[in-house]
Structure formats: structure tokens, C-alpha cells
Amino acid sequence: MYYSSLASLSLVICFIINNKLFRTGYSRELPKAKLEYRHFLHSLILFMVTDIAWGLLYEMHIIPLVYLDTIAYFASQALAVLFWTRFVVAYLDRNSFTDRILLDVGKVTFIFVVSCLVINIFTPIVFSFDENGIFLSLPIRYLFLIIQDVFFTVVALYTFRAYFKEAKNKRHQYRTIAVSGAVMAVFMTFQTFNPLLPFCVTGFLISTCLIHAFVAEEEAAEKAILLDGALKEAEKANAAKTVFLTNMSHEIRTPINVIMGMNEIIRQSSNDDKILSCTDNIRKSGTSLLSIIRDILDFTKIETGRMELVCEEYYLPDVIGDIYNLIRFRAEEKGLELRFEIDAKMPVRMKGDALRIKQVITNLLTNAVKYTEKGSVTFKATVLEKKENIAAIRVSVIDTGIGIKDEDKEKLLAPFERLDTNRTRTIAGTGVGLSITSALLRMMGSQLSVDSIYNAGSNFHFDVSQEIAENTPIGENWMDALTSYKYTDKAERRNFTSPDSHILIVDDTALNLQVICGLLEPTGIQIDTAESGAEGIDKFAAGSYDLVLLDYLMPHMNGIETLAKIKEEYPEKAATTPIISITANAVAGDRERMLEAGFTNYLSKPVVVGELMDMLIQFLPDEKVHLVAQASSEEVEEAKEDDELEGIPAKLLDIPWIDVKQGVEYCGTAETYMMALSMFTDHIDEKADLLEDCLTNDDLEMFIVTVHALKGSSLTLGMADFSAKSKELEFAGKRNDIEFIKEKIADYLDEFRGLKPVLQECSQ
């Protein structure tokens, strides 16, 4: 009975530790090694079942059944040896001559054992029973057991050899397999010389436990591979999202830039304080909107915690004024009372990331106005404590709106989550504002808290510490400081001349160079241009410049590579010369990437006149910048009478697929626009031939750079449809979609070349 008990225990343990593999259906695709391993387990179970039956039948002395069971016992043992060999060979997967020899010998051994057992039914040569039912081992039994034992040993040694020679990445698994085979070989040896003791099943029991360790390691390795694959797929998806956002940022920013550009035109043509105040509010709102769009477009950067704060000194009345002007019109439209309660002890100047602080407060106030139908919205800023040069400030936004249910508060900061949709479905919004706000506050060492009563209102508040730059209190009359802040001061700063300044502009697109030169013409600045990184380096070396504008995406040598070369070859001159990056990509993080590369600052394209002028005033030597007073009202009236499209041929204005007015806004003047259009037209054949050569020579990089340049230059001229087609080809190049390019390029080039005669005729 003890014989059967030990075999039964082995069988139970085998089922328990391998149940997962047993539950895997044959219909599922399994690796060959795992399939062979399962075959081995099945043969092992058959062996254990026959071992259990042998002990029970032998004890009950049912000799005929014991006889048949013994045949099945030896056959299943030989089968287990065969499948173990097949598993080891499949797992090592070396496809060597030794593999084939082992498999062939395993088959021959199994056939030899089965043949002997069949013969034994008629003529005992392996085993027999005497008249008393005592089991007798015959010489052939010892022979094939020894053969199997030797074969087990050889396979174990073979695996050990692989462990030492070729399996550095799977050493633990190989070692486990080898030890398991060695254990089975040793116990089979014991079984050979002691047929009535359960040595063989004991060996299989120990080996089964060792094999369990092997299976666990294999499953862990498979999970690691799957996790690694999933991580790579996630990284690939994230990279694709980043590329998409990078490419889309320009398209989203363009209409905003147009709005701000038209606002600039209004400002330049008016001297009315009320109008200037409105244009000031538009400028501030547009700037804030662009900043928020940058954050939303690069939401992945917030998720991964890669956004950085920029600590700079700021003037508190300006920050409050920007927030007030952005929110008050929304509040007035809904008939809400807007209250600003500012602690008189607040320092007038502090250091911190004013842009992010404004973004946080603006998000909270915007939400408060959205979800409040009547009553008031209150913004409070209170000094909690001043210690040395640090001010601890509590900011609160209180409303009398719809409030938040207790069960919804946990979901409040989840991105893209809309609460109480039955009441808020008509309110526009993405649901990402509070998530961004919370992330920004965490970066500032703070957190967003909310107290809310459903149907009564909410109080969002946070505490933040800021370094004190000037401890003068803002006072009770902070509104006076706000209302005295006139945009005319900024306007005067943007009206300047600087004939003694000398700058270098590097851009591979001649049209872009022409546009920027046209925008800067009124300033009298001396301008040199270069159409490649290499030419830019040569001119930088030969000349003396007060500032350099360097395009990022250029063929052969991009802006970062050009800057690195300049810093390497001319370190002293580069250290004293502001070098500004210009790029058509405007995803949040580009500025940080450019600054990290060593650029002094960053401008996005299409270039906004005001941003360009502000950048020049900031970085050109003060002694070379001469501010120009505002024009008189009479001069403004005369300017208003001038037609902004004067000098544009009537035929050109009649072309439906070109927005001349938008092009003039981008180029600054009609004269500059016509020069840029002429330059674009003159280079059509050259650019078309270049694109064909790129495809012929498999030069995908140059193809991408060329269509990227055509995308920007055609958009600057007002050809939005052609720009969109160029963008399509650029995106296809970036994702290496050659089939799409081949499908579209013929029609694209036909259209591109077809522009030339039309533009030439209409420009005359």
C-alpha cells in the first residue's frame, strides 16, 4: 500500500503544480518546447497511474492484471524518457547534429522497449511471475532500464553543457532542467537494482518539484517579455502622439496668430485709449490662450512629470490685471458679480512662475464662471505668513454655483472627466483643466483643495510660497496700479529703430528670409541672411552680429547641430551673441528643448510681429535701440486711409485658392508679399525637380525638409490648401509611408508646377 500511496502523492503534486499548463487547451497555439513538455507531463501521469495500480493490484494478488499493468508501466516509463528528450531538444533549439542523434536514439530506445514488452506477452524476456505471484526481473529488463538510464544521463549532461557554453540568458532554466534529468537518472538506477522499491516514482516526485521551479521561471520570463513589449508599444504610441501634437500645434496656433496679428494692426492704426485698452486685453488673453494650448497639446508631458517651472521676477499688479481682464468679460456676459479681494500686505514684486500661477488661477476662475448661473465669483489672495524673504500665500476662488456632490469629489481631478453631466452637458470644455491645475500645483509644492456644498457653491483653494523680490505692500488701492497700466507703453517699446544693430538670419527657405526682412525693414536694422547651417556658420565667423535668428528644421545640418558647431568653433563669440531659435513646431517643451540645446530663446513660426519686436528689444544692445513716440492722431487717420492691399494686382485678388489678405498680414506689407510671391514662383521648377530627385535617390530626409519648407512658405502666402497637401506628404515621410507618397506625388507635382504660369500671369 505504501508503494501506491507514494505514487498517489506524486500524482497529486504533479497536478497541483502544473495545473495551469494542464488547463491550457490544445486548440491554443503553444511554443514547441512547451507542447513537448506537456506531452512529457502526460506520459509522467500515465506512469504514476500505472505505478499506483501496480501497488494496489500486487497487494491484492491479482496477477493477470498486475502483468498487464507492468507492461503499461515500463512502456509509459520509456515514453516519458522519449518525451523528456524531445522537450530538452526543443527547448535548447540548437538544430545541431547532436539534437538529431538524441531524437533518433530516443525513438529507437522507445521502439526497442515496446517491442520487448510485446514479445514478453508471449515469451517472458523482460519480467515474469512465479507460481506464488512473486515478481521476477529477467536480464532484458536490466538491459533496457540501463539503456534508458544512460540515455537520461546523456540528455542531462547535454543540458549541462548548454548551461555552461551557450545559455547565459537562460542559465537558471537550463540548470533546473539538467538537475531534473540527473535526479531521474539517479533514481532510475536505484529502481533498476531494487525493482520492488518505489525509487523511480520518488525520483519523478523530486524532479516534478524542480520542474515546477523551471515552469515558474519560464512564466516569469514570458511575462517580462510581454511587459517589455507592452512598454515598447506604449512608448511607440506615446511617441506617435507627440509627433501628432507637434505637427498639429502649428495648425492650431495659426488662427490664433492671425487674431493677434489683426489686433496688432488695429493697435498700430489707433491712438484711442479705449481701443488700445481693448487691444491690450486681446493681447493678454491671446497670450494666455496660447500658453494654455501649449499645455493641453503636450498633456503627455504633464503626465510624465517632465514640465519645468521657470522662476522669474514678476510685478503682482500685472498678474492680477491679466487675470481680471481675462475673466471680467465672461462674468459680465452672465450677469455675475466678480470680486477681487487682494490682501493689502501682498508684496508688490515676487519671484516664481507667473505664467503657471496665472494659468492655475485662470482655470479655477473660468470653471467658477462656467458653473455659476447667478450670484458671484470671488477671487481671494491672502498673505498667511512672511518669513525672511518668503511669502506664504493662500489663493481661493469662491462661487455660488451648482456645487459638487460628495460622491463626485474623488473624480474631480481625473483628466477628461465631466461631473453631473445631466446639468453640465451644455457647458463647453474638455474636462482637463483641473487635472492640469492639480499637476502644476504639485510641481509648486502645493495641492488643490475643495470645499463644496451641492446646489450652494464651491471654494477651491491652495497655498503657495513665493520669494519676495520687493516687499512694498500692494496696498488697498491695487486697482489703481492695474488701471494705470496702459498698452501704449508697450506700443512705444515696439516702435523703435536700430540702424546700428547688425543681425544674422539663417533659414533654408528664401521666402521666410524675405518675410522677416520685410517685417524688420522699418527698424533700419542691418541684416545678413544665410540659407543653410554651413553658410550661417561661415557668416557668423566672418562678421560681428548683435543677434542671430536660426531656423531649426534645415537640410544637412539642423538648427541644434548648427548651434553646436558654432559654440564648438567660436566659443567666445557665441557666448556673447544671443542666438534665437525659430521653428514651426510649438508644442510645450520645444522652448525647454531649445534652451537646453543652448539657444538664448525661442520664437515660433509664423512669426508674430509683436513677439519678434519684443525679442529684438530684449536682446539687442540698449544703446542701439531708439524708441519712437506714438504717431499723432492726424498721422493715424492718414494711415487708415491707405489701402493695405495697395500694389496687389486685381487678378491676384480674384484667385479663389489664395488668401492674399492673410498673406499680406503674415508678410507685413503688400510690397513684401509681392516680393515673397515672386521668389516662391521663381523656385517652383527647382523645388519640383528636387522632390523628384529625392524620391529617385531614396533621400527621404531631404524630401521631408523640402515639403516642410513648401508647407510653411505656401501658408505664409495664403495658399492654405496647397500647404495642407504639403503637410500630408511631410507626415507621410515622417512615418516612412512610401506607398502614400508614391500615390500622391504625381498629382502634387502637377499642381505645384501648374501654380507657376497662373501666379506669373496674375502678378503682372
In short:
The protein is α/β, with parallel strands linked by helices and 764 residues long.
Write the layout of secondary structure elements.
Elements: H1 2-17, H2 19-22, H3 32-60, H4 63-92, H5 97-122, E1 127-129, E2 135-137, H6 139-165, H7 171-193, H8 199-268, H9 273-297, H10 299-303, E3 312-315, H11 316-333, E4 337-342, E5 347-352, H12 354-370, E6 376-387, E7 390-399, H13 421-424, H14 433-443, E8 449-453, E9 457-473, H15 478-483, H16 487-494, E10 496-497, E11 502-506, H17 510-520, E12 526-530, H18 533-542, E13 547-551, H19 559-569, H20 571-576, E14 579-583, H21 590-597, E15 601-604, H22 609-619, E16 626-627, H23 633-641, H24 650-654, H25 660-667, H26 670-682, H27 684-696, H28 700-716, H29 720-734, H30 738-762
Helix pairs in contact: 1-3, 1-8, 3-4, 4-5, 4-6, 5-6, 6-7, 7-8, 8-9, 11-12, 12-14, 17-26, 18-19, 25-26, 26-30, 27-28, 28-29, 29-30
